[in-house]
Specification:
Strand order of the largest sheet: 2-3-4
Strand content: 25-35%
Shape: elongated
């Protein structure tokens, strides 16, 4: 019976615990100016080498998410399994007319060039 109790927890991890926005790694919050200067140098070097550093947005996790700008962004946190929501950071959402392929903002619902009205489809695009 102990095995049946552990399976739902495993399923939650595999299915993801939710969708969280990643947090850019914050600067060192210390009064020591030397530590702040070293932190800014490290951040500059990481960015110049193409390294991207974030924290998991899951409040129960907060682990580092590190990847190179030329690599595929991770879809889930490697520690907690939560889905990473890159919208606003690397992905934006638009709406597209399925008939004429004209693009609209997310607040539009119908393409104004068709009668009867044609509902727009939401689409994610890379920034």
């Amino acid at each position: 019976m102990a095995n049946s109790n552990s399976k739902p927890d495993d399923t939650k991890i595999k299915d993801g615990l939710g969708r969280y926005k990643p947090i850019k790694r914050p600067s060192a919050d210390i009064d020591n100016p030397l530590v702040k200067m070293l932190d800014s140098i490290v951040n500059g070097l990481e960015q110049s080498m193409g390294k991207r550093t974030y924290l998991c947005g899951n409040p129960d996790c907060g682990t580092l998410i590190i990847f190179h700008k030329n690599e595929q962004r991770p879809l889930v946190c490697h520690k907690c399994g939560s889905e990473i929501d890159w919208e606003g950071e690397y992905i934006s959402r638009i709406k597209v007319c399925p008939k004429c392929s004209k693009e609209y903002d997310t607040n539009a619902n119908y393409c104004p060039f068709h009668s009867p009205p044609v509902s727009l489809l939401e689409k994610e695009v890379e920034k």
